[in-house]
Amino acid sequence: MFANLPLNALRAFESAARLLSFKAAAAELSVTPTAVSHQIRALESWLGLMLFERLPRQVRLTDGGQRLFHSLHGALLEVAQSVDTLRPQRSTTHLTLSTTAAFAALWLVPRLGRFYARHPNINVRLDTHCEVIDLHQDASVDLVVRYSLDAYPNLYGMCLFDESFGVYGSPEQVALAARQPPTLISVRWHNSKLYAHGWDAWCAQAGETWLTRQPCMREYDEEHYALQAAIAGQGLVLASNILASESIASGLLVGYRPEVQVSGAGYSALCVPGRERHPPVRAFFQWLGEEARLSGYALKNSVKLFQDRVTHI
């Protein structure tokens, strides 16, 4: 059934397509770039179509190449995972998760001990760089947790929770704000589509006139810096109910007029289709879903699975 499949050429193609480089594929496969090029040309001849556009200093997949890569990558990944399950279990299994520094620091890490208590042999490595990762191209990352309003195809995922924005501060600052205009703390968003003009929207909904009085405004690049400033008593912060939840539960922050909330986007956990069946990834998805439900902010009181939809920064 599979006797005529050019397996070496398909393996060379998958590596080159994932890395978008014949040279990088050669290094990964421990062969020469010329050998990779020959294998791919032989595969193109066998198929009767071009898989790559050869450009100066780079290559780019054609439409046919994209279709073959998505199918082939998923198939090889499933074979690799099946083979891995047959090997004697090692003492520790590694899982790489990519997310934002703020989500990792303010929501994930405080809860991660509960995951380790249940799965002591799974070691979670956190990648908190801001760059958006293409999971089809970067096989080193098992799954991502992303925040967005957008939807993109070809990933398996779990919607974790919707988000809203409220105003929070230390107990002393919240009490003081009832008597005098507070210092306002905000975040300089990298993607303004996600939450633009936040204080304007909140003040309009609350009927507060703080912004008309030229208030003192403090601005930070990351949400965890802004929340730490609020905890330290530097003013009131406009912040995500998800990211502020641990500080609220511990009493470090309290809500100012907590009934006033402005809608945000949502968080989702995502991976390449098929990878969700890999035991460490499956375990982490299950744990994330349970934690989302426990947090009280899960989407419509449930965690929804979706296919062919992806959200990211």
UniProtKB/TrEMBL annotation:
GO terms for biological process: DNA-templated transcription; positive regulation of biosynthetic process. It holds the Pfam family LysR_substrate. GO terms for molecular function: DNA-binding transcription factor activity; sequence-specific DNA binding. It comes from the Bacteria. InterPro entries: LysR-type_TF_proteobact-type, LysR_HTH_N, LysR_subst-bd, WH-like_DNA-bd_sf, WH_DNA-bd_sf. Keywords: Activator, DNA-binding, Transcription, Transcription regulation. Residues 5-62 form the HTH lysR-type domain. Transmembrane segments: none annotated. Signal peptide: none annotated. Belongs to the LysR transcriptional regulatory family. This is LysR family transcriptional regulator. The lineage of its organism: Bacteria, Pseudomonadati, Pseudomonadota, Gammaproteobacteria, Pseudomonadales.
